[in-house]
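Why do we bother with holo predictions? Because pocket geometry can differ from the apo form. Keep that in mind while you read this record for tryptophanyl-5'AMP.
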Amino acid sequence: MTEFQPRVFSGVQPTGNLHLGNYLGAIVNFVALQQSHDCIYCVVDMHAITVWQDPKELSRQIREVTAAFVAAGIDPVKHIVFNQSQVSAHAELAWIFNCVARIGWMNRMTQFKDKAGKDKENASLGLLAYPSLMAADILAYKATHVPVGEDQKQHLELTRDIAQKFNNDYAESIAEHGFGDAFFPLTEPLITGPATRIMSLRDGTKKMSKSDPSDYSRINLTDDAEAIATKIRKAKTDADALPGETDGLKGRPEADNLVGIYAALSGLSKQDVLNQFGGQQFSAFKPALADLAVEKLGPIGAEMRRLMADPGHIDQILANGALRADAIARPILDGVKDVVGFIRRK
Ligand code: TYM
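The structure, written out:
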């Protein structure tokens, strides 16, 4: 079996406000993985334009996600932070994957169905091909581990399907070119912790999302202490006290969500949180949660604002990251081209 060097890759779209779901479901894990792995974190601006983005706003959001990465504790010197469109290997490999993946696979993606809505014919072609670009993001670096929230699971399964089909379709050429029995690794999703799916504060059955029209549905990383406290105070709950055991959260999506948020913010398990708050009313739990959220998120928001005041510095981080990302992706893409039978300029 071909051995692959462990490498972490993940991406975040620069669309709308980064929120607590992005932070707890993904970014916290990005930060932790820096201790054990070489990590590449990408601001996926090419994915963003699969739905319309105002150009000025897009540039601002690319910088804002970069600022969030750094403010949350990602080290852009030891690891790599860059925006996707600066490394052309993503687009080039995505095209090859468009020819490996099947239209039927793309049509089955729940995110495509949700985003395209009823008028599928009018969705951009890019929105349909979105998961193929995502597979290219990951596999351009032969990344072995991808930390994401629960909502990206299906896309990562598709990434494995694409890698597998490429490895099978080109098996002979892969071996002939000295790449052993597999060119691409079958990437492992890392969907871990008590907050893999943070729900809306207004409706515990809906995912917390950048695109929800109600700002009260989410806590943004840039919210100030007052906004955080207000949103948690107004969060939907039921009338019962918190249970003593996690089993008691079943069928209570709002309670489950708030306990999960507390657990993730404090680094405890949900059971630990219930050991502390079981039997108490939301009127007691919500202020404690608000204090904790302000304590954890306040400094990140403040650091983001500080970084955003110097866009030149952020652009430098991205340019430097892009150069280093390109140096990894380029030889991998050259290998892909050789395997496929393209003739390269040497
Ligand atoms: P995006 O930008 O929608 O979200 C970024 C990360 O945040 C996670 N997330 C959540 N986690 C928990 N609860 C929530 N409510 C919640 N909302 C979002 C997402 O799972 C994600 O990890 N397609 C990706 C971006 C992408 C990517 C990649 C990811 C492009 N290429 C390659 C990994 C590898 C997306 O739209 O994420």
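The radius of gyration is 21 Å.
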